[in-house]
Amino acid sequence: MTPPGVSPIGRLLRPVRAGMRRTAWYRSATRPAPEMIVVTSDAFADGGAIPQRYAGKGVGDDVSPPLAWSNVPDDAAELVLVIEDPDAPLPRPVVHCLVTGIDPASGCLPEGALNLVDGAAPTAAGVIVGRGSFGRRGYAGPRPVPGHGAHRYVFQLYALDTPSGLDDTATLSRTMEAVAGHVIARGRLTGTYRQD
Question: Which parts of the chain sit beneath pLDDT 50?
Answer without folding.
Answer: 1-2, 10
